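quick q for whoever's on today - can somebody do inverse folding on this one?? i tried earlier but teh output was garbage lol. tokens:
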């Protein structure tokens, strides 16, 4: 059996039940492209200067580790696009929203 490894910087987001509207608030879903969403990901939470994504140690994070039921809710493909644009390549969570899981795989974001 082949094994594949991925190395990168981890950003721990220790929260459960993060839905797609929290990942990419609707007001940021206006660009009809797959690129240009990096500054909108977690848009509402980023307004708090203490939110983890604002910390300099996580500016180049490529692995997001989070709680259960990540990316549930609407089928917002912008959530996947924003995470990818930020630089995440992998999202590790105990469980995912079904639609997000499929969208992530289609868009080369490893859930």
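ok took a stab at it. sequence:
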């Amino acid at each position: 059996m082949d094994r594949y490894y991925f190395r990168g910087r981890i950003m721990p987001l220790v929260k459960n039940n993060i839905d797609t509207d929290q990942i990419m608030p609707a007001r940021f879903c206006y660009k009809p492209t797959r690129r240009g969403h990096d500054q909108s990901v977690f848009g509402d939470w980023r307004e708090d200067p203490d939110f983890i994504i604002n910390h300099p140690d996580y500016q180049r994070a490529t692995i997001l580790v989070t709680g259960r039921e990540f990316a549930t809710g609407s089928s917002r493909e912008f959530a996947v696009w924003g995470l990818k644009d930020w630089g995440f390549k992998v999202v590790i969570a105990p469980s995912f929203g079904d639609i997000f899981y499929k969208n992530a795989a289609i868009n080369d974001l490893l859930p």
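fwiw The chain has a mean pLDDT of 89. also The two ends are 20 Å apart (CA to CA). so keep that in mind when u check it
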